[in-house]
Amino acid sequence: MQDRKPLPPIEVVRSLLEYRPETGEFFWRERPEDMFPARRHALMWNKRFAGKPAFNIRHHAGYLYGGLFGSNFSTHRVAWYYQTGEIPDEVDHVNGDRKDNRFANLRDVTRKENCKNAARRTRSRSGVTGLSWDAVNFRWHVRVGKKHIGRFKDFDEAVAARKAAASEQDFHPNHGRKPSFKGS
């Protein structure tokens, strides 16, 4: 879920939400009466929502999100913003679990860095990212990103070459892991 709407000021976010970095969960804080047109609206809202989980709606892509002031925001972006006060470029889930928004599992990265921690595609025939069978040459074709590494007769040799090349190019150790949900 890609959202680039401007986040509300950090003081506002922190006044409306409570974030628990050790669990990655958000909860609604009690809101003051001056945020509502009438006292009864404040009482109703606080009775219904204050202290309850927030930002826990699941997106079809596996991420969690929630709404503030009529706009939806990804939970992981709000968590990073809440903890650091800085608007992230892109937030990566280190372990690949899109629902795990513990602060220790999040990192602010560029798009290129985020792609270096991607799961294996579910349609992979070889079961290894960057490894495909070349039926013309009867060899395993190895690549890292768009870079051609070579062709190998032996599957294990091809896997080792792919792993070494990925390490040299600073790919995250989790890159190519088994997808944690359908559709990744």
Describe this entry's structure for a reader.
With 184 residues, the protein is an alpha+beta fold. The chain has 2 domains: 10-115, Homing Intron 3 (I-Ppo) Encoded Endonuclease, Chain A; 120-184, no CATH class. 26% of the residues lie in helices and 24% in strands. The chain has 5 helices and 11 strands. The protein has helices at residues 10-16, 39-49, 75-84, 111-115, 155-168; strands spanning 17-20, 25-28, 53-54, 57-58, 64-68, 71-74, 90-93, 106-109, 131-134, 139-144, 147-152. The strands form 4 sheets. The chain has a 3-stranded antiparallel beta sheet with strand order 1-2-3. A 3-stranded antiparallel beta sheet has the order 4-5-6. A 3-stranded antiparallel beta sheet has the order 9-10-11, covered by helices on one side. The protein is elongated, with a radius of gyration of 22 Å.
Short description:
Helix content is 26%, strand content 24%.
From the alpha-carbon coordinates, what is the Rg to the nearest angstrom?
22 Å
Number of structural domains: 2
- Give the end-to-end Cα distance, rounded to a whole number of Å: 12 Å
At CATH's second level, what is the architecture of the largest domain?
A: Alpha-Beta Complex
Strand order of the largest sheet: 1-2-3
**Any idea what the shape is?**
elongated
Supply the number of helical segments. Answer: 5
Q: What is the multimeric organization of the chains shown?
A: single chain
The secondary-structure class comes to alpha+beta
What profile does the largest beta sheet have?
3 strands, antiparallel
Highest CATH level, the class of the largest domain: Alpha Beta
Q: What is the averaged pLDDT score?
A: 85
Look up the CATH topology of the largest domain.
Homing Intron 3 (I-Ppo) Encoded Endonuclease, Chain A
* Strand elements, count: 11
String of helices and strands: HEEHEEEEHEEHEEEH
Indicate the percent of residues in helices. 25-40%
